[in-house]
Each structure stands twice: as C-alpha cells, then as structure tokens.
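batch job 7 of whatever, protein = ADP-ribose pyrophosphatase
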Amino acid sequence: MSKFKRVSRKVAYENQWISVFEDVIKRAEGEGIYAVVKRPDAVTICVSSPSGLILMLNSFRYPTGEWSLELPMGAIDAGETPEAAAARELREETGVVDAGLTLAGCFYALPGLSDQRVYVFTASAAEESLRSADPAAREEDLGRAAYIPELEISDLIKQGHITDSLTLCSLFFSGVHIARNLSGPGS
C-alpha cells in the first residue's frame, strides 16, 4: 500500500465556507493531482420523543434543486466544541433547547475528498417540545419540521425520501431502526 506525499498545494477556490485545494502528490507510481476540500467539522442531531418520533427538517438544497428530509445539522464554529455546536444548531434550526445531548459517534463525510468530520449527537425531548419546533421562522431554506415515527424511517429511505448522506449515517450511529426491510419489497 503506497502512501501519498504532498509535493505542493495551491488554492483553487476559497470563501468563508469552503476551501478547495489542488495538491500535487507523489507516490510509488509517480506524481499526480489530488483535489482536497476543506470544510469545518459539523454536527448532526437525532432528536427523538419517548413515543418514538424523530424530528427532521425539510431543507431546500440549491445544488440539487430539491427539498431534502434531514436531521438538524450544521458547522462547528471556530473555537466551539462539537457539543456546543450541536446545542446551538438544534436551538437555531428548531427552537428545541435542553434536550440532553449525547455523543453517538463520529465519521468522515467524504474521506476521498475531504477531512471534514461529522459528530453525531442524540437527544430526547418531550413530544410537545418537538411539535413546537418552527424552522421556517428561523431560516429561509428550512421548510417545515417533520415528525417521523422511527419505524417508518426504513420505508422513507427505500422510497427515496431520505437521501442526505449525513442524515443516513447519523441515523445509523443514533441507533434508529433503519435496517428493517432495506433490501426492498418481497425480500
């Protein structure tokens, strides 16, 4: 197994949210070019009620031109801990506070392209707290909150209603029951 050695790096594009680098790399097979995307680490929060409802948001995603059913999520600000970011994002995106956050795991969002880590938190909130979530009043790209029964998650994935990779990985880390019948109808 060969290890990459960076020979040089130049900034191909940069703004306040993302940096794209073009690296010249060297390995046993010779030199090549590798694109690297730098983004701040992020958090996702899987909030459930005692009755098994999962709080999700309908977010409009400009690159796909579609609405996406997702868990609350967002970037970790400079100097902020993952737990503080999770509490802030949950409050900003849903209005839910004091939900008792627990770190469930961490993963790389796209390890072949970026070193961005995603910290997955679980939380629980009373159903009335979940139902009072009002993302539309907070950010223009957030639609309505959705309250999904945990046992319906796998069907929504199969039907193509949950397609966001961070949400899919985070549901797995959160222990949400998604394995049931994912192979399709009649199996």
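notes: The helical segments are 82-94, 127-131, 153-158, 165-173.
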